[in-house]
Amino acid sequence: MADDRIASVKALEVLDSRGNPTIEVEVRLEDGSSGRAIVPSGASTGAHEAHELRDGDRNRYFGKGVLDAVENVNGEIAEAVRGQHASDQQGLDRLLAALDGTPNKSRLGANALLGVSLAAAHALAASRGIPLYRSVGGEDAHLLPLPLFNVLNGGKHAQQSTDFQEFMLAPVGLTSFSEALRAGVEVYQTLKGLLSRRGLGTNVGDEGGFAPSLANNVAAVELLVEAIAAAGYRPGEDVAIALDPATSELYEDGVYKLASEGRSLSSEEMVGLWAEWCDRYPIVSIEDGLAEDDWEGWALLTERLGARLQLVGDDLLVTNTERLERAIASRACNAILVKVNQIGTLTEAIDATQRALALPGWGAVMSHRSGETEDTTIADLAVGLGTGQIKTGAPARGERTAKYNRLLRIEAELGPRARYAGGTMLAQSRRQ
Q1: Which of 23, 38, 62, 350 is buried deepest, with most CB atoms within 10 A?
Q2: pTM for the predicted model, two decimal places
Q3: Does residue 127 register a pLDDT over 90?
Q4: Is 348 a catalytic residue?
Q5: What pLDDT digit, counting tens, does each position of 308-318 carry?
Q6: Of 338, 231, 218, which is closest to residue 278 (Cα–Cα)?
Q7: Of the residues 186, 207, 287, 399, which is catalytic?
C-alpha cells in the first residue's frame, strides 16, 4: 500500500489573471506522488469571508504580495503537517484550522491554508492513480454541471457598465455538457456581433464577459434574450438567464443605490424589481439579489420568489455552514455558492456543499473567483461533489476556458456514464 504521508510542502508566489500575486502550493507524499494547487482571489468579496493574507508592503506589488503567506506555508505549516496522511483530509484540515487558531484564518492566512489543503487532495489523487473528481466523489461521480456563463460584466468587474455585476447564460435544455458549452460559445459570439454592430464596446471584464455602456440595467437582460434567439436557441427552454447583481456593493445607508439609473431602492423595492424582471424574462437564478446582512430582505425575497426561482447566497453565506444554518432557519435563499477560498479548507467547502444538497429544494453552485488562474480544481470538485452547477466565467480567457476544457475531458473520460445536469439541479427544480 502506498505511503500517503506528507513528506514535504513548498509554496511559491505566482500571478493570477489580474496580474496580482497569489500563492501556489505543492505537496509531496512519501510515495513520491505530488499535487499542486493555486489559490484564486476575489474582487467583490463578502465581509464574512475567511481572511486572505497580503503583505501590505506598498513598495512591492502595491501591497498585494503574498510572501508572508508563502513563508507561513514553507515554515510553520510545513513543519506541522509533515507526516500527516493525505487520505485523512478532514484530519489535515482540522489541524490547519487549529494551527491558525483564529475564527477567520487571519493569522496564517486562508490562502496559505487552502493552498495546502487543495494540494494535499491533488497529491492523494495522484497517489491513488485516479482523477481528483473520483478521489473526492468515488466511483459514482458522473454528473456534469450546468455551466453559468458570465457574458456581460458590470459592477466591480467592469467600470462604466451596469450597476449589476454579472449577467449569465444558463443552457438548461441541452443534452450534454459539450453541447451546453457549444451553446454558450455560440450565444457569446452572437452577442459580440450584436454589440459590435450597435457600436457598443466588446472589451471584456475580469471574467471574460463583455462590458458595454448601456442605457440601463435591464438592457443587459434584453441583449441576452436577443442573442440567445439570434444564435438559434429558444430563450428559457434551451438557454435561460442567471444573474449575480452583487448587491452588497450597492447597499448603503439601508438602501440599494443604482448609480447608473440615479435611483435608490428599499429592500422591498429590490424584491419588486426582481419579481418584475422574472415575470418578463426567462431568469432561473439570482445570486446575491440582496445584501450580505439584509436578512429580513432575503426572507421576503425567498417568500415571494423562492418557489419558482433559484436564490443563491454568496456574500450572504460565504461557504460557511454557520451562516448556512442561519439561512435555513430564516428561510433566506435556497442555494449556496461554493467558493473554496471563502472558507479556507477543502473539508469546510465540502461540508457546506453536502449540507445544502441534503436539503429538499436547495441547490449548490461551484464557483471560481474574478482573480483566477490555470488551476482547474473546481471543475473536478463540481463533478466529485455532484453540485450540478458551476460558475467559471465566459467561454473566453485561458483561466476560464481551462475549467471548461477540464470538464470536457472528464465528460470524455466518463463516456456513456456521463450525465449532464442541465436545469435539473437548480433549486426550484429540486423542489419538484
Answers
A1: 23
A2: 0.96
A3: yes
A4: no
A5: 999 999 999 99
A6: 218
A7: 207
Signed CA dihedral, 326, 329, 333, 335: sign only: positive
Query: What CA–CA distance (Å, rounded) separates 154 from 114?
Result: 29
C-alpha cell at 5: 504521508
Sign of the CA dihedral running 89, 95, 96, 97 = positive
160 CB-contact burial (10 Å; exposed 0-12 / middle 13-18 / buried 19+) = exposed
- DSSP string covering 6-37, please? EEEEEEEEEE-TTS-EEEEEEEEETTS-EEEE
Tell me the C-alpha distance between 45 and 323, whole Å. Answer: 16
Which residues, 6 or more positions from 324, have their beta carbon under 8 angstroms from its beta carbon? 313, 317, 336, 352, 355, 356
What size, in residues, is the chain?
A: 432
Judge whether 207 counts as a catalytic residue. Answer: yes
Out of 64, 105, 287, 339, the active site residue is: 339
Copy the grid coordinates of residue 49: 469571508
Q: Are 301 and 311 in contact (CB under 8 A)?
A: yes
Residues 6+ apart with CB under 8 A from 425: 143, 145, 146, 363, 364, 387, 388, 389
